[in-house]
Structure formats: C-alpha cells, structure tokens
Amino acid sequence: MPEAVVDNRARQRFELEVPGATAFIDYHRDGGVITFLHAEVPSALQGQGIGSRLVRGALLIARASRERVVPRCPFVAAYIDGHEEFRDLVAGVP
C-alpha cells in the first residue's frame, strides 16, 4: 500500500513517511488559505517521485477541505503549473 500524505497541523506541515525518512511541506493556514512555504525531500530520496507524491497528496487534502492555496515554494508552484487539474485551487485564480 502506498504511503499517505498526512496533515500534521501541530507542526504546520504536510508529511509523507517513506522508509527511513520523512518528506514534508511547511505551510501556514489563514482564513481558508494554505500558503505552501517550503518542500523538503531527504537528499538520498530525491529523483524518485516522492516530492511529486507529497505535493499531490497535500493538494488533494486542500481540495477535500475546500481550502485555497498560495504556492510560495518553487517546487509546489512548478507542480501546479504542470498539473492543470490543481490550478483551480490557487488563491486569486477564478
């Protein structure tokens, strides 16, 4: 079973547990908007699609909770640019 992205509200980050490590996206929530600040995948795990799985899972959580997103993290912004199905989540986009 694939790992699931979880919303760790206490630490204000989305997390994806992978064998031996945790990939995460730091965020800030305010009034129905999640600002994605910084994504981090352990260097030993980069290039394996973990970052993309993490962002996709975080965006699906935002959609399910009917929140908008502000992608300040360049990796998250690039992911959204390449995946039209998530562009409607970006705050300020009709």
Secondary-structure-based class equals alpha+beta
Distance separating the two termini:
36 Å
CATH homology-level superfamily: Gcn5-related N-acetyltransferase (GNAT)
Described by the principal axes of the CA atoms, the overall outline is globular
Helix content percent band = 25-40%
Number of strands: 5
- Percent range for β-strand residues: 25-35%
Q: What is the tally of helical segments?
A: 2
Mean pLDDT across residues: 93
CATH class division: Alpha Beta
Uncertain ranges: none
Radius of gyration: 12 Å
Oligomer: single chain
Main β sheet profile: 5 strands, mixed
Describe the strand arrangement of the main beta sheet, using strand numbers.
Answer: 1-2-3-4-5
User: How many structural domains can be distinguished in the coordinates?
Assistant: 1
Can you put this structure into words, describing what you see?
- The chain has a five-stranded mixed β-sheet.
- By secondary structure, the protein is α+β, with helices and mostly antiparallel strands.
- The mean pLDDT is 93.
- The protein has helices spanning 50-64, 74-82; strands at 5-8, 13-18, 21-30, 33-40, 68-71.
- It is 26% helix and 34% strand.
- It has a single domain (5-89), classed as 3-Layer(aba) Sandwich (Aminopeptidase), CATH 3.40.630.
- It contains two helices and five strands; from the N terminus they run ββββαβα.
- The relative contact order is 0.18.
Layout of helices and strands:
Blueprint lengths: L4 E4 L4 E6 L2 E10 L2 E8 L9 H15 L3 E4 L2 H9 L12
